[in-house]
Write a structure and sequence with these properties.
Layout lengths: L8 H6 L5 H9 L3 H9 L10 H14 L8 H11 L3 H9 L1 H9 L7 H20 L6 H31 L8 H31 L6 E7 L1 H4 L9 E9 L5 H20 L10 E2 L12 E2 L1 H10 L3 H7 L3 E5 L1 H17 L6 H14 L17 H16 L10 H10 L5 H25 L10 H11 L5 H24 L1 H6 L11 H10 L5 H12 L4 H18 L4 H15 L3 H9 L1 H13 L1 H9 L18 H13 L6 H24 L4 H23 L1 H5 L1 E7 L1 H4 L9 E9 L6 H12 L8 E2 L12 E2 L1 H10 L3 H6 L4 E5 L1 H17 L4 H17 L18 H15 L11 H10 L5 H25 L14 H6 L7 H23 L3
Parallel strand pairs: 2-3, 2-4, 7-8, 7-9
Antiparallel strand pairs: 1-2, 1-5, 6-7, 6-10
Helix pairs in contact: 4-5, 4-6, 5-9, 6-7, 8-9, 8-10, 9-10, 10-12, 13-15, 17-18, 17-21, 17-23, 18-19, 19-21, 20-21, 23-24, 24-26, 25-26, 25-28, 26-28, 26-29, 27-28, 29-31, 30-31, 30-32, 31-32, 32-35, 36-38, 40-41, 40-44, 41-42, 42-44
Length: 989
Amino acid sequence: MSHAPTLTRLELARVGFAEPSRAFDLLHEQQTALSDVVCRRLTAFSTAADPDTALTEFIGIAERHPAVLDVDEAAFTRLLRLIGGSLGLSEFLLRDPAELHWFLTHDESPLTRDEYRESLAEAVAAARYETATGACATPASAAHSVSAAALALRTRYRRHIAQLAHWDFATPDPRDVVARVSVALADLADAAMDAALQLAREECRSQLGDRVDHVRIAVIAMGKTGARELNYLSDVDVIYVAEPVDDADPTRALVSATRIVQSMMRIISAGGVEPGLWEVDANLRPEGKDGALVRTVASHLAYYERWAKGWEFQALLKARAMAGDVELGREYIDSIRPMVWRSARQENFVESVQAMRERVSDHIPPEQVARQIKLGPGGLRDVEFTVQLLQLVHGQHDERVRARGTLEALRQLADNGYIGRREAEDFAQDYRTLRVFEHRLQVRRMRRTHLMPTDPEELRILARSSRLAADADELLTVWTEVKRSVRDLHTRIFYSPLLAAVARIPGADFQLTEQHARERLSAIGYRDPAGALDRITALTTGVSRRAEIQRHLLPLMLELFAEGTDPDFGLLAFTRVSESIGEAYWYLRMLRDSPVAARRFAVALSRSRFIGDALASQPEAAKWFDDDDGVQPRTFEVMRHEMLAIVARHPKADDRVVALLQQVRRREVLRLAIWSVVHEVPAETISPALSDIYRALLTALLEWLDAEERFGVRLAVIGLGRFGGAEIGFSSDLDVMYVYEAVHERPNIRAAAQALGKAVQDFRMPVELDLDLRPEGRKGAIARTPEGLAAYYERWAEPWERHALLRAAPVAGDPELLDRSFASINAVRWERPLTRDDERQIKRLKARMESERLPRGVDSSRHVKLGRGSLTDVEWIVQLYQLRLAAHDTTVRTTHTLAALSALETAEAISQSDAETLRHAWLLASRVRDANILATGTASDVLAEPGSALEPTARVLGYASGQSARLDNDYLRATRRSRRVFERLFYGE
């Protein structure tokens, strides 16, 4: 019989029901007793984060356990508060009447670690006693006993979780108790692991016999568990340590220990009537998943002394003995702890910590980055990594800042002057806020999550449960402000301490010892802090005006260098330029008075070794950082005129001319490098300007060579490959071939070609002429006459040679020779139809190149020139289609890859989507190739692995710090798509 409730929908809405009409109808359907209880105690629903869920869950519990309708008002309120905040714990109470009764009759505050241990041990012992009473001692009965005890362990654990969650929910401001809740959760985890370890020994006894008693085992908590900062549903990170008892065989003891801890992990995590508690994760052990699950203390020490990386010591910062043999756990911690605090002395320590941060962030799907409470920008990891890095740097000399927990460590850092108290307080409060969000999201369904919901209703519930906002919109505002604050504090806390340390070096007001200055330089990213301090001292020592200005400049410059990928090199290059320019007033005035110029200068030096090395020999180019017009590329005609003027001022064949022309070339290449890095100009804009530089250089060198007089020949240069297509990069050689005509009886074309090739070479900024694409390749004549060229192409040319001519373009030399040569070249490449046999040969050659030309050991997906879906794939498909169509469609007759691709798209030979895929991959590969040499100063056609190796390239390409994995993903995704298009269009797959 139903009873219409006397409540109104308005009254339901006032206590927080999101769907009062649905609640009204639901109550209308219930029995009189239930409806009456709800009507009389309606205000209790206002204590629930989600009154709608609380009502639904209460009805479900009352239907199965009617006695719940008779509890007093305090118990009723407690129940609603719990089930309205956690569906997962509501399900726990629903499936176990005894636990429901216990919850209703107890109101528990967080217990101590020992109290939790006693409670779980008692539950396990009672279950084992009950199953053992009257049972025969058989393996089956022993297994049943362990299974029943495991069930009791999980049940008792969740009993305490339910009590803890209710206590947490009842707190006016959960930020005030979040640290205590985390400690209680960690203590509960310790108790569960300890009880599970004892059960595991008994489970393994049937197979191992008394060997289970001949090994000591300690479980070491890592991560949040070790710091006692655990969430409601975190993975529990652990390391296992074992030692034989007395004279037991060590190898057999480790085998036994491994079996025991595997059993323990199953008891904790495996599914069952009462679900597993959480995942036990041992992947932070030496060698990770590939390493032994259990090691002795000595084995751990040997690994950490010889092989461990910086991030592994960072992980050990929070290590704590949590379960098992107490003395063994203490021995392990006492042995490892000193190594943790020595780790900051390692070379590249800061880089290793940064690499760890990158690895943590690498696997965030792009669509989740903005929602990540834990890993995203302004999230928990920003706080934790900042605090840990400062601890590791300063803690090696100061034992007062070695706390495991983040909040305690922040307090210690502030108390001892390493960060400001206000900054520490703000950082700590933001951290508590983020942890409250994380706790509330996880406890709602007892599922592991770190994502801010997008559903407005879920956001509303989170706002109510956290008590940090009135509604969903306000909650998002609070979260946005916290993220912004964390990012700002992360930057300021991490970088600002150095300023006071270097403001007056050396001087009476210097506030830090030399050792502390080195430590702080190391903390912000300098890999050689001693060398950096030496350079700072050299720049600032003395009473000159230059030294005085440098003392004012350096704090800013050091901070700016630290924002780049290589602050050490940035400071070194800055020192070189400063020493080369000397007292030049414009230089120091520019840096002092122009923040824009100072930032550009620092960005270029700390991100680009190519620029830093080039500026060392051309320091006057530093003025371009304050001159947007000066850094713009100059036209071919302007450069040609300047270079020819140099030739004209000197005698013919004067060797000094080559050095002067190369100086102009290096200056113009440097101009483009600065333009590219500082203004983030893409490779496709840089390439034509680079090609113009080399066209001007070759034009001037041919004039200087005076080949007609000295070698008896008229000479011209034809560009091929990327040079012919005006698509070269900073690391490209110049593909060319020579045409000539004899003017004397005994012409020496080989000597002329060799003299030109030698003149082009430059050890300071390397570049070479490459003749491998000439007729017959390396076996062919070094140069040919126009008529010889025509005859060869008419009778003997292979399809690949015709293919190579597609990007042939006149570069320099006798115009009449070039005109005659291109008459035959154009006939061969544009007018001759492509036969089926020609196409088969081209495809076979491409397949052979893929198997033979890729350098050994290089991943084909990461080679930007020869790799799958990269430059050559795009160029070959474009050129194949040009050869197919050029005989009857003049619009595709172009030497430029992108222009040809657009023409093929217009001609509908390649679809718009395919063209865009190919274009994107080609552009990205070209940009990566340029960025590799700009960043490192060394030419490389390989995309480095994400992390510190790829970071310099990513920063040159405009990616934010720590986003090398994003570049990696962008490149691999683009080339995968490009390769699919290539295989379909080129091979017909």
